[in-house]
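AarF domain-containing protein kinase 1
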Amino acid sequence: MARRALKLATLAAATSGIYLYGNKFLDPNDFGVVRVGRAIATTAVITYDYLTSLRSVPYGSEEYDFLKSQVHLRSAERLRELCCANRGTFIKVGQHLGALDYLLPEEYTRTLKVLHSQAPQSTRQEIEQVIREDLGKEIKELFLSFEDTPLGAASLAQVHKAVLQDGRTVAVKIQHPKVQAQSSKDILLMEVLLLVVKQIFPDFEFMWLVEEAKKNLPLELDFLNEGRNAEKVAHMLKNFDFLKVPRIYWELSTRRVLLMEFMEGGQVNDSAYMERNGINVNEISRNLGKLYSEMIFVNGFVHCDPHPGNVLVKKCPASGKAHIILLDHGLYQVLSDSFRMDYCCLWQALIKADMKRVQKYSQRLGAGDLYPLFACMLTARSWESVNRGIDRSPVSASEDVEIRSNAAAYLPQITQLLNNVPRQMLLLLKTNDLLRGIESALHTRASASSFLNMSRCCIRAVSTYQRSKSHSLCRRAQISLSEALSLWQINLYELFLWLKGSQLGNWVIALLSRMHHST
């Protein structure tokens, strides 16, 4: 079997080489034998390790589980080294995998998370070249000052602080110059390698990753599209006064250069920063949940890269209010109405622990007989907690360990699910895991208020959709009345929870208890 793996890897090298050279849309000189060879060699070594290390060990034994964890770790480290060496699209895909905390083995997510802080930096000369080509001027002609050291570097671009000639301080996002040329070739190479690996491991179902990269990468590489997304979400969520989205300066923006208002703050997972600046951690977590519930359930237009570097917090000196600053608007998921309604109904069923409706709407979203696993993936809770009600108790340490270990134990079933669910679900799962990571860092995970706000958004979304499809005035009035009643019940329950946890509530309960005992 191991020899077969090496033969297939060699065949992949030859096949991909012939395909690349024969494809008129690709320039093999840009690829380079080292770049392609590195990816093929890494894939072959990882495949060989899985085939040989676990071959003679009884499946399901303690030794098997231990060795499998070691192979996962070695493979994740090799994959990380490949991403850092090949940069660009490889880092982007590695970051995506590293964000799937409750869907992939912990060895992979923990190892690949560092790619968020190990992205490459373009040189000053490369930055000058991009600006010259896209804006037709030198840096010194456009800016009074331009900081050489970037504020941050990502897989596709980096951001510099600068001051325009009129004195405005701006953030300048500049694309790495080689990313555009390499991205389509990188995706093609990944596709060929994944197809070969699937021949060796039939349960290996990761083609969805390539499909998502094919669809989303061209959009992320168009900074004009990112600017439009930023303006759209700022208008869409204008009622949230705590949200700040940088203004775009269109006159100096192109597909590879984006000029925007400069905003600064602490990362949203930095609880020490919030404590130093008098920012309420629970308020930030609650407001972040409101933003995403509104985006997902009500608007169906979702910012899908909320890692801590893209979500900042800052206390406004004038008002004393804490602001959430949302950055990097390149990756959005647009949800269809039918998908959004099924997703709303599924979450309502999960919150109410209505297992029949959980099964119904999970299956409508492609989960099939794996709906219990799908419910656990969505909520990052155990099946026992899902049955009991995910709002009944917070996540315990033992439950968190159980969920993470299940990600390794049920990897074939998880990858099967990821292949079967609608493509819209994939980025939502990644977004859910990133948000849970923030909540976990702030120790605010699974609060009752977050589920109540989700319920409000689901009720509003479903009611608005039903009204839009109804032509009867009487029916629309019934829908509005039902919506108002459901929202009133949630408000009443929220008041009960507040009283239960407040000093006034404790005093009232004590008084009622005394009155009961006296009678």
